[in-house]
């Protein structure tokens, strides 16, 4: 779930100092070594003479290698770069919902966090980036950090996750999908970013590990008789997962049923009476550490569910069938695999194994 629906965010149009603009443009054009790739010489010989042109979400981004000063503006994008061993080339991150993925703590500690939410456009440019990536259209749009066109004017290439541009982001909410999300766009993002940084081999290895984890997590499980609902945040008007985003990947991989699979909205706000009426067998709860909505943590969600007169008699609540997921695992990213693993483990613990 992006920050698009959070009303405290306002569009920014901050004047940029001339020195910052010039630095960003000059850095893009200059070659600066190739630390961190498995074959620096190969990456240089393949890309120095001719820029790499990357087709991304309907845009053709020209990228000169080697990149050394990337800024990743969403947690999902950051965790891909860290998983590819590129911490030494990331000079800033922003927009976090959770602690970094397990195993990446040391790498993440080396990277400056520009903001827990959206950093300002000026603060991003202060890092003199030669590449900017994001997981959500809202981040690289009006009301986010800045539209992609603003970076383009300064000669800074941008990249948006294919998983997000595959949905309709034209409204004021988190968008909607005509076609159900699969893991293919996530794997494509890993490969794209690996290619941009000249570490294609690492990208393929990461994709294979993710596929292996998916296969292991879902082996022998049949939850076709199990109904589920996914609550991301907000106790007043809860954001519940629709059919076709990352929770849809989790649900379909386990052959389960999402009680709100009749909506194509990514994270529609649904009243509690409707949630109680659908009465899922299992509730998957976002366990977030941010503090921008009500009931962010799983603990607060459970307290609400067990004390609210509308929800306390729901099947999942009475039997305490709760599965806790990070917010990152409920968004399209490499963490979606973690979502599959944890949800499968939870269903097995509840006896829903076939």
UniProtKB/TrEMBL annotation:
InterPro entries: ABC_Transporter_SBP (IPR050902), ABC_transptr_periplasmic_BD (IPR002491)
Biased composition (Basic and acidic residues): 165-177
Location of region: Disordered: 162-182
Boundaries of every Fe/B12 periplasmic-binding domain copy: 69-354
One of the Pfam families matching this protein, by short name: Peripla_BP_2
SUPFAM superfamilies, per database record: Helical backbone' metal receptor
Family: Belongs to the bacterial solute-binding protein 8 family.
Entry protein name: ABC transporter substrate-binding protein
Record lineage: Bacteria, Bacillati, Actinomycetota, Actinomycetes, Kitasatosporales
